[in-house]
Amino acid sequence: TYTITLLNNGTIEATTINVTDELMETLSFISATTTKGTYNENTGIWMIDSLNAGENAILEITVETNTSGIYSNTAEVTTADQTDYDSTPNNNNATEDDQDEIICYIIIDD
After folding, report:
1. Whether the Cβ atoms of residue 19 and residue 4 lie closer than 8 Å to each other
2. How crowded is residue 9: how many other Cβ atoms within 10 Å of its Cβ?
3. Distances (CA, A) of 101 to 10, 62, 88, 104
4. Spatial distance between the Cα atoms of 80 and 78, rounded to a whole number of angstroms
5. Residues in contact with 103: Cβ distance below 8 Å, sequence separation at least 6, in sequence order
6. Which class for 94: exposed (0-12), middle (13-18), buried (19 or more C-beta within 10 A)?
7. pLDDT-derived band at 56, boundaries 50, 70, 90
8. pTM, to two decimals
């Protein structure tokens, strides 16, 4: 299960937020739950209508695989109505605070 937490660190409400979290093709989607918004497993987009200043939202995506290997998961804020002054949404820049990645090493015993 991947857990993605989105925090509005700004001083005003954020609206029309999309977070993209596309799963690797070698993973099978099982389910997704959110505390806010909806996740579309076909597009990999988590849509959140609004997030108050200081509020967070959580997305949990459950996946499975039957193949050992190195798996990565990247989530990035790709759109929002407000300007983000310290990062640029949807630019695939891992050094900014609107994107994060995790790498998992999965070993399956035969």
Report:
1. yes
2. 11
3. 22, 16, 16, 10
4. 7
5. 70, 71, 72
6. exposed
7. very high
8. 0.86
